[in-house]
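Q: I have 256 residues here and want to know how they pack in 3D. Can you give me a structure?
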Amino acid sequence: MNKDVIYIDIEDDITAIIGKVKASASTIVALVPPKRAGVLQSVVNLKLLHKAADWPGHFPNGARSVAIIAAAGGDASAPIMFLDSTKRGETPLHWAASSDDVAVLDALLDAGADIEAPGACIAGGTALDDAVAFGQWRAAHRLVERGARTAVWHSSALGLMDRVEAYFAGPKIPPLYPWGASKGASLDEVTIAFWCACHGGQRPAAEYLLDRGAKLNWISEWDALTPLDAAQRADATELIQWLRGRGAKSTKELRA
């Protein structure tokens, strides 16, 4: 079995290192940092994992690179650290979800990534929050399959009607990261879930939620779109026609 050894120097660029890992034809790739560079090794591994999952994703051998880097000590759940060394944000899993890169997403979870890790650019939440908000549906469904916790807005956007109905049948479980809650305002979960159903092109969920008090022409705080606008962006023709039939309007029409 062939093994490729990649020696890392303090001056090496992270992009060059990840390029060498991806280009290797060997089954086993060993990353060797400079001697007495334990902190550097951790930083390199972290940056390599983020690079493998970074936008736009779907890089050649991305999943294999993640497995190699994780085996070399990379923490699959480590959030990125900014230059001031204090601000911490998204993890590689958030980035893979935002890129709809299911192969890398699976590799990260297989390497121990925390599926519920916070840090999303959407309300500071989970990788599922990012996937649903950015309309990365393959990644979103895969995260649910792998055990991600869902709030009613996730379930509505993904058309998971059993979960949507369960929200109304039992005790209300508040979301970990209440996307859409403005400062000082109460969270209208039903209306936000309705908007998300339209964002995901899910007519059954949209009908169900409208019948339960969702506001038809609510304008979202994050992108100033109504449910109709969201459905149009999703090219959900049947849903658009149904919304129009119920009196739905665009933001432009409402503000005319």
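Q: Anything worth noting?
A: Confidence is low (pLDDT under 50) at residues 36-45, 83-87. Strands lie at 3-7, 28-32.
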